[in-house]
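note to self — DONT lose this again. spent like an hour looking for the file last time. sequence + predicted structure for the chain T wanted, 98 res
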Amino acid sequence: MHILKKKTILEYVENHPDAKNQLLSWYHDANSSDWKEPLDIKRTYSNVDFVGDKVVVFDIKGNTYRLIVRVEYQFGKVFIRWFGTHAEYDKLSDVAQI
């Protein structure tokens, strides 16, 4: 998958250094994957949540953080949409629209 934008992940790492290893691991895994459908993601990340048609929520660092991405399976692209604590995630009004 092609992750847009690595710079965003690096900014998250800078702002949340305690999640550095997990975020960079996610980036590496996702970047080397070839997801064609949600089941492909679920095979690697059993605790992933699917919200709406293409929005995927990953638990990062034991569910301390959440990473929201939009996956365009047919184009092999992943758009990073949001990253924050689980508590911040719980306050979001409409995850599918992020």
